[in-house]
Amino acid sequence: MDTVAALNGPRGATMKKISLVVLVMSAVVAFAGADGPRYVYEMRELIKATGSAASQAWAMNMGVVSEAARLYTPVSFTKVGGTLSLSMDATMSFSLGRSVEVERSDERVLLRHEVIVQGAPKLPRASKKATLRFSLADLVKNGGSYAGSPLMYALRKAIADSSYQSGRAWIVSAMYNGAGRFSIVVGLSKK
Predict the structure, then answer these.
(1) Based on the domain organization, do 133 and 48 belong to the same domain?
(2) S-S: 150 plus which of 41, 62, 73, 178, CB 3.0-4.6 Å?
(3) Calpha distance 56→8 (Å, rounded)
(4) Same domain, yes or no, for 174 and 102?
(5) What is the pLDDT of residue 48?
(6) Is the domain of 46 the same as that of 26?
(7) Do both 106 and 174 map to the same domain?
(8) HSE-CB for 28 with a 13 A CA cutoff
(9) Over the stretch 126-142, which tens digit does the pLDDT of each residue have?
(10) Which domain does 85 fall in, by range?
(11) 33 φψ region: left (φ > 0), alpha (ψ -120 to 50), beta (else)
């Protein structure tokens, strides 16, 4: 009996089903622990750099993306006086998907990076959620050293505006409406 005849018989149908189940299970295992895509926004200043300066700019900007992707998992915070301290609670990894230029001016470009967070622990229950809405102009004007990372700016602002002196915070969702405005939801927990 040749291979084609074997695959078309009753045993062949069973083998096809088993192969399909194995493929589906492999896909499930490969994506286990991965959440759906989330978006990280990055405000990048336009510079004319070449050689090592360009490499430094790339490394700096990839740091913004990885820092912002981490904010989808809880970070611990403490506020003492006017100082805010943040620390990561857990390890996680992410994969970078498609990057899209959303807005451009003569001096800056706003990029949206799709990230898939993997290995992140289950999020705690938020004691409260803060929705921050701000414009690109607000981010540039008031963002200070976080003007390049709308997510970090929103997280720090939500923590600063909360009454909690310590706890955990994370980005729940981040949206940019294409008309110059962000809406970022931050989860906050006392624990």
Answers:
(1) yes
(2) 41
(3) 59
(4) yes
(5) 57
(6) no
(7) yes
(8) 6
(9) 999 999 999 999 999 99
(10) 38-189
(11) left
CA–CA distance, 176 with 181 (Å, rounded to integer):
6
DSSP state of 81: T
Give how many domains the chain has, as a whole number.
2
Looking at the chain, which runs of residues are DSSP E strands? 38-45, 75-80, 83-88, 93-104, 108-118, 128-135, 166-176, 181-189
What is residue 26's three-state secondary structure?
A: helix
Query: pLDDT tens across 54-72, in order?
Result: 444 444 455 566 776 788 8
d(CA 110, CA 108): 7
Q: Do 150 and 167 share a domain, yes or no?
A: yes
Question: Token pair of 180, please?
Answer: 């110059």
Question: Does 180 lie in the same domain as 122?
Answer: yes
Distance CA 68, CA 74 (A): 12
Residues 51 and 101 in one domain: yes
